[in-house]
From TrEMBL:
It comes from Poecilia reticulata. It is found in: Secreted. GO terms for cellular component: extracellular region. SUPFAM superfamilies: Immunoglobulin. This is Platelet-derived growth factor receptor-like protein.
Length: 366
C-alpha cells in the first residue's frame, strides 16, 4: 500500500512540472508574437502600391449638381441636352475630345485653366458628341514640354439618344479601304453601349454575321474586319434597333486596295522622248499607292531658279480589276521653249507617311 502511494505522488509531481513548462512556453511565444507581429495583420496596416496607383489614376471627374463630383471610369453614359463639365486636376493640363468639335470650330466647347485644375465645358451636347474625352499632365523641361503618358486619363462618353442610335456623321457616304495586310473598320459607332448592331451588304442584300474571329463589333469603333479580302467590296450599312423602328447608319463603300503600305512606288518619264532646242517638254512623275494616302512631290532640275516652269499635281482612283482599287498620283513639270540650260538630270522626290522615293531621268539634246 505504501509503495502504491509513493508511485501516485511521483506521477502527480511529474504532471505538475510539465504543466509549468507548457505555461512558460506559451507566455514566451506570446511575448515574441507581440514584439514581432507577422502574418496578414501586419501587411494589412501597410498601404498597397496598387491602391496608391488606383487613386492617382482618377484625376478626370465630372462636376455634378451642388458641388458633387463623379470620378469617370473607362466609359460613361450621359443624357444629351444637359451641359457637361469635366475637370482634371493639375496646373498644366492638355485635353482631347472628338475631332469634329475642332473641325467646325464649335463654340459650345470651352476650356479654362486655373491654379489647381483645368475645366472643359460642353453645352447642349448631342449624340454627335459621343466619343473619347481625355486629359493629361504636361511636363516641361525648360522650353520643351511633352505629355506625361503615366498621367493620362480618358473616358469614352456616350450621349445616348433613342432617335440617333448611331453617332451622326457629316458625311453621308464614306469610303473604307480594305488592305490585305491590316484590319479595316466600318465606323458605325453607337450612342448606347447596350445597342446590338448588325452589318449588311446592299447588293446583293445580305447580313454579314459576326463570328468573333473575322468580324467583331466594338461600340466605340464599329465593325472590325480582321482579314479583309476582295470578296467584301461593295456598299454596306449598319442596322440597329432599340424598342422601336430599326435605324440605318451612313452607307459605306468598301474598296479593296492592291498596293500594301510602304514608300511610294514611282515612275518618271519625259514627253516627247526626243527633244530639241525650242521644244516644249513634260516630265511626269507617277506614284501608284494607297487610295486615301496623300503623296507630296518635290523637284530638282537643271534650270531651277533661272528658268520658269509650270508644275501641276493630279490624282485619281483606278479600278484595276478583280475589286482592286489604286490611287494614281502625278506631278507634271512642264518646260516651254527648251534651251541649253534646260538639258540635264530631272529628279523627282515622292514622299508619303511611310517613306520617300527618289527617281531621275536625263533629258539630252537630240
Amino acid at each position: 500500500m505504501k509503495l502504491w502511494a509513493v508511485f501516485c505522488l511521483a506521477l502527480l509531481c511529474l504532471e505538475l512540472q510539465n504543466g509549468s513548462c507548457q505555461a512558460t512556453k506559451r507566455k514566451k511565444d506570446a511575448a515574441e508574437s507581440s514584439a514581432h507581429p507577422g502574418g496578414k495583420r501586419a501587411r494589412a496596416r501597410q498601404p498597397a502600391l496598387t491602391s496608391r496607383k488606383g487613386k492617382s489614376q482618377s484625376l478626370l471627374t465630372q462636376v455634378l449638381d451642388k458641388g458633387r463630383f463623379l470620378r469617370l471610369g473607362p466609359s460613361t453614359t450621359l443624357t444629351p441636352g444637359k451641359s457637361v463639365e469635366l475637370r482634371c486636376k493639375g496646373t498644366n493640363i492638355g485635353w482631347s475630345y472628338p475631332t469634329y468639335l475642332d473641325t467646325f470650330n464649335d463654340s459650345r466647347l470651352s476650356i479654362k485653366h486655373s491654379d489647381k485644375y483645368s475645366q472643359l465645358v460642353l453645352t447642349s451636347p448631342s449624340a454627335a458628341d459621343t466619343g473619347s474625352y481625355s486629359c493629361w499632365v504636361i511636363v516641361c523641361d525648360g522650353t520643351e514640354c511633352q505629355r506625361d503618358q503615366d498621367r493620362t486619363y480618358a473616358s469614352y462618353v456616350y450621349f445616348t439618344d433613342k432617335e440617333n442610335l448611331f453617332v451622326p456623321s457629316a458625311i453621308h457616304f464614306e469610303i473604307v479601304y480594305l488592305r490585305p495586310d491590316k484590319p479595316a473598320v466600318v465606323p458605325c459607332r453607337v450612342t448606347d453601349p447596350q445597342v446590338e448592331a448588325s452589318l449588311h451588304r446592299e447588293v446583293p442584300p445580305e447580313e454579314i454575321t459576326a463570328n468573333q474571329t473575322l468580324l467583331t463589333f466594338d461600340p466605340t469603333k464599329g465593325f472590325i474586319l480582321r482579314n479583309p479580302s476582295a470578296d467584301l467590296q461593295g456598299v454596306f450599312y449598319c442596322k440597329a434597333a432599340s424598342k422601336g423602328t430599326p435605324q440605318i447608319s451612313t452607307k459605306y463603300e468598301l474598296l479593296y486596295v492592291e498596293v500594301p503600305s510602304g514608300a511610294p512606288f514611282v515612275s518618271l518619264g519625259a514627253s516627247p522622248e526626243m527633244v530639241r532646242g525650242g521644244d516644249n517638254v513634260n516630265v511626269t512623275c507617277t506614284v501608284l499607292g494607297e487610295p486615301e494616302e496623300d503623296v507630296s512631290f518635290s523637284w530638282s532640275y537643271p534650270g531651277q531658279d533661272k528658268r520658269p516652269v509650270h508644275i501641276q499635281t493630279l490624282g485619281r482612283l483606278v479600278n484595276r480589276g478583280m475589286g482592286h482599287t489604286t490611287r494614281v498620283s502625278q506631278s507634271i513639270l512642264s518646260v516651254e521653249n527648251m534651251q541649253t540650260i534646260d538639258f540635264g538630270n530631272y529628279i523627282c522626290k515622292a514622299k508619303n507617311l511611310n517613306g520617300e522615293t527618289i527617281v531621275m531621268t536625263k533629258i539630252a539634246s537630240s
